[in-house]
TrEMBL record:
Lineage, opening ranks: Bacteria, Bacillati, Actinomycetota, Actinomycetes, Mycobacteriales
GO function terms (MF aspect): transferase activity
UniProt keyword Heme present: no
CDD domains (alphabetical): GGCT_like
Name this polypeptide is given: Putative gamma-glutamylcyclotransferase
Pfam families referenced in this protein's UniProt entry, alphabetically: GGACT (PF06094)
Organism of this sequence: Nocardia terrae
Keywords: Transferase
Residues annotated as domain Gamma-glutamylcyclotransferase AIG2-like: 16-122
Keyword Metal-binding appears in the UniProt entry: no
Amino acid sequence: MTDRWARKIPSASDPLFVYGTLRFGEVLTELIGRVPEIEPARLLGRRAAALPGRVYPGLVYATGSVTDGFLLTGLTVGEWLVLDAFEDDEYDLLPVCVEAGDRAGYAWTYAWTAEVEERDWSASAFAVEQLPRYLGKCAAWRANLVLLSETV
């Protein structure tokens, strides 16, 4: 696991591959106040695993698997900092090779480093069963971040 405060934040021009709750525009709006440019993408050799006791997934190695998600581009340094602070300590920020349309390229993503369930996480089930309550938690987290930092 990487020390969050020693970790290098990608530059604003670097894309972020999102596969879980950050794939929802409503979540991004609660956290960073907008939805950046978004493009469908996929990551080979990994899966979005369900996590014990959590409503969000963790990205883990899985031979033969494909994870569908999105590339976020045009994030500012401040937005990168907010998203990085939002992610649990069990995530590592790693570069990966993703496919978007007919091209392949590198992006950053948050990969999970702790225990996972055998089943995959479902974005559609999350949207129906968890999203409204999760948005409230995101709003409260963001309000607390602003109060703590007074600069974000």
